[in-house]
Amino acid sequence: MAKTLRVVPAYCRDYKSAEAVEADWKAGKDFQIRNHFDPDDGRYVNIKDAPDHDVIVRYDQLRKVTTIKAAKKGPSA
Hints:
Blueprint (H helix, E strand, L loop, with lengths): L2 E7 L8 H9 L4 E3 L10 E2 L7 E7 L4 E5 L9
Parallel strand pairs: 1-4
Antiparallel strand pairs: 1-2, 2-3, 4-5
């Protein structure tokens, strides 16, 4: 079961589409954890830090939400 992070774009970036959000997440750009009940609230994170996490991202001036599922690891061959 994948863990879930709630994040927003870092460094004043914003997005107009969920596709742009996912592209930047997969490109390794930073996002900021935003969850008041998480001890890591405010910390910067990217896909390299959390490859096994599902990510819920607020974007478009925090009015929209998209979810990026963690990459599934297949069986070793």
